[in-house]
Design a protein that fits this description.
The protein is mainly alpha-helical. Helix content is 77%, strand content 0%. The chain has 4 helices and no strands. Helix 3 packs across helix 4. The protein is elongated. 0% of the residues are buried.
C-alpha cells in the first residue's frame, strides 16, 4: 500500500529499517540508487499516477480525487 501521508511514510521506512537492520540513511541511499528518486519523490509520483488514473478511468472530478488522496 502506498503511504498516504509523510507521517505514514516515515513509519513505513522505520519499519523497513527495523525489519532489515539497516539504517534509515542506508535505506534511503539504496532506494535512490535502485529507483533514481528519493522516497518522497517516488511516493509523490505514485500518487500523481493514481490521481491521473482516477480522472481518466473512474469519472472522478478533481475535487473527488483530492478528497480521496486525503483519506
Amino acid at each position: 500500500a502506498i503511504p498516504s501521508s509523510p507521517a505514514k511514510e516515515k513509519k513505513d521506512i522505520l519499519n523497513i529499517c527495523a525489519e532489515t537492520g539497516y539504517s534509515r540513511a542506508y535505506v534511503f541511499k539504496e532506494f535512490r540508487a535502485a529507483t533514481g528518486k528519493s522516497v518522497m519523490e517516488y511516493f509523490i509520483a505514485l500518487k500523481i499516477e493514481e490521481a491521473k488514473r482516477h480522472l481518466r478511468e473512474d469519472d472522478m472530478t478533481v475535487a473527488m480525487v483530492r478528497l480521496d488522496a486525503v483519506e
